[in-house]
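Hey, quick one: can you model this chain's 3D structure?
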Amino acid sequence: MAATVTPITHQHFKEASKFYNSPACLSISEPYILCSHQALHVAMTIDKAYIRGSMAAILSVLQHSSCPHNIAFHFLISATANASLVRATISSSFPYLYFRLYPFDHSSVAPLISTSIRSALDCPLNYARIYLASLLPSCIHRVLYLDSDLILVDDIAELAAIQLGDNSVLAATEYCSANFVSYFTPTFWSNPCLSLTFANRKACYFNTGVMVMDLDRWREGDYTRKIEEWMEIQKRMRIYELGSLPPFLLVFAGNIVPVDHRWNQHGLGGDNFDGLCRDLHPGTVSVLHWSGKGKPWARLDAKTPCRLDALWASYDLLDTSFAFDS
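Sure thing. Here's the predicted structure for all 326 residues.
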């Protein structure tokens, strides 16, 4: 009898190995790690569509960290999600993980979201990173935000230690050779008031899937509101096509600390239309990021993987024995 695929209502994941701190790591008291300034704080979103990627990303962070027990994870979930199920799913795979869940009520941002070139980009949780400074407790001053469709192959501590200088709010990989004009519509560029936004700024594209963020400076500068103001203009005038990225560019492009490209080898998911296979950019690699339409778990399940998807597969914790009924 042929195997019949049954829907995975609640995806089941295998338990990951336990990872230990090296002797050189700071000792942080366990009850206080989720609010400790000595801990390395990582923020991610988790939802039903991307949880398989999130679990792989968490594993990759822990596996390559020299001080895995000094990492505190902060997971943003939809306010309508089953928090108990999400917590149980994470804990079953990572029993020793220090983490907290933050329900994101998207009622305030939902009216500001415009349709984009790919429906997945319109998910309200995709905008949760804009609200990190208010969602996370004020005791957290600095956080490393990571997308769910990436894996790290290097020690995250090196990335988290990047200095933001005296004024910068965030650090991210910057690509000044990209066609920056293409991220905004002719309506934007033909409006003299709007196009002057980038006057006296060396505005370059940067990817928001990996960001080091100073939450104190974000709060002081009221940057959530500044991004929301651009989203309000977008609703009236259609000044961009690509989800949550353009408002970030409008506020921060030209004013960020650039990070070495090895920390975000993005675009491995291809473009936003076809999701075709892509190879790595030249140079060393610390983060592989499947941004774009094609996700490695989907291509693997469809038995049409790209060459680099095999690297992601080595971090996949999905227990496939729950996916089939013979």
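One thing worth noting: The radius of gyration is 20 Å.
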